[in-house]
Amino acid sequence: MTGVVMVVGVARYLGACLARVLADDPRVDRVVGVDVVPPPTELGGVEFIEADITTSAINRAIARSRPDVVVHMNILATRADAGGRVPQKEINVIGTMQLLAACQRSDSVRKLVVKSSTAVYGAGSRAPALFAEDMAQNVTARSGYEKDASEVESYVRGFSRRRPDVDVTILRLANVFGPVIRTVLSEYFVLPVVPVVFGRDPRFQLVHEDDCLDALRMATIQDHPGIFNIAGDGFLVLSQALRRAGRLPLPLPSLGHPVVRGLMRRAGIADMDSVQTRFLTYGRGVDTTRMHEVLGFKPRYGTVDAFDAFVEARARGGVLDRDRVDALDQVLRSFAGLAGAFGPGQKTADVAGDRHG
Amino acid sequence: MGEGAGSDASEGLDRLLTFLKRRLNGDFSVDAFGFDPELTEAVMLPALRPLYRHWFRVEVRGIENIPASGAALVVANHSGTVPVDSLMTQLAVHDEHPTHRHLRALAADLVFQLPVVSDLARKSGSTLACTEDVEKLLGSGELVGVWPEGFKGVGKLYSERYKLQRFGRGGFVSAALRSSAPIVPCSIVGAEEIYPMIANLDFLARLLRLPYVPVTPTFPWLGLLGLVPLPSKWMIEFGKPITTDGYPDGAAEDPMVIFELTDHVRDTIQNTLHRLLEERGGAFG
């Protein structure tokens, strides 16, 4: 039995979904959701506690509800979510410190699950093609969210040194995609014309939102201490993703230049910081061997499936939509069929057959 | 005759349309290193083929020394100011080998700093020359190509031609040892003459943070025309594989074993180069 589970960060989409999923799970006695504001949707059987994790209020919340498992979902990837870089860093770093301090003092907590991100590996021209879990230390240039995520992880490592009796699972998730979730990356692919870096075609992996929740639930209910990369099988390159979404690319010399960034922000296109622009320049790949073999987690959706699920729900009707490409192909084929009438090609035979029939 | 040509043409058109539709819809797949086999076979290799066949008239020997399947590490000499030799070796392996294997080349980090170049490199199967990537590739049974001289080899002066430079620290040998992959020595003759580098503008190279800025008989004097490589005659010979299994555990960290194997590979390539040069005669014959 898993006992009482506390999910920190339930006002946001994934946190709320996870809390609901856990509340419906018969193996969990009780689910307590914590956030600084109430969740926008009803959480079903989840008991909500309003507390700011950047203050000692989280300590009181833990002392009162005595959770067995704490799931930390409150690491924000984008500054827009927090209302700026300063509050983002405050929530990520100070929030984690307060939460860990509260867990350290608690005698009920026996497991901590942290939703981290593959952003801890950074992105760059010198990066290996696949990052394994033990390769997070040798990345140098870090700023913004990448820095937050690796600082959070280093505090978590410190916590597990001080409380060796508490199992710690860190899930480093690739970008989460799916029909519902909205992230900077998903909104980027909804743009009618998508700015890309000229001469670059970054590779990336995605994890479907359902798989993301499954992995977090698995880490919460079963005991799998350790660090795991979580990503769907297979890869996408940016140009391929844009074509699957029927979007037109707009090559720019750089997405990171202040002028480009300012124009994009002012046009309401996207508010991208250096972490996102580096990702969209160099891409990133992570090794999921440990997820398959040690964690025993098999994602139901591959990277391409997760992206297609998103496209089907959010990004149909682009300039180069699949239907238009198919129609164009049909038109060209019928022209070619007429032009090739003097040759007994397969196509012309079919056309002739149709006419007779 | 006319009918045959017509059906060929419409079949060709059919294939082209199917290909374009697939590309436009994004219905293709890349591997973890960004390798796009379809694009490589349909666009990149055909673009290099005229250069390979008619300009450099590449003659390939010992292709049977590359295993039909499974991991192997091809180690070759590097030269020519612009690393055309790695592209030609990739094409040689693909075209001449009975199972048309793809040689996964390891490239310097400069390649991945440059736009366009980095993109083409990844799509054609190259990746960064770092231990993690080599071991991943060899571990998944790929044929990997490495040019251990690096920029010391490509950027050397014409007067130093066919003199092998230092083979780094033998990182490629320890990677092969760890994966028990055989090493196939590869000697390339002809690449030295394509852009004979008579001087290196050291100060400019430092200013631009490039490994070298070449001066050749045609570059920069003839501008863009100076970028046309000279039509030297090429020979690529793959030598007998050197096995790396049968070493005790920990051999991959043993400097004695590594230096011995590195020297063995280097000497094999150097000796083959001398022999091939004698056989070839004139550089542009």
TrEMBL record, chain B:
SUPFAM superfamilies: Glycerol-3-phosphate (1)-acyltransferase. InterPro entries: P_lipid/glycerol_AcTrfase_prd, Plipid/glycerol_acylTrfase. Keywords: Acyltransferase, Transferase. One of its GO terms (cellular component) is membrane. It comes from the Bacteria. Residues 72-191 form the Phospholipid/glycerol acyltransferase domain. This is Acyltransferase family protein. It comes from Phytoactinopolyspora alkaliphila.
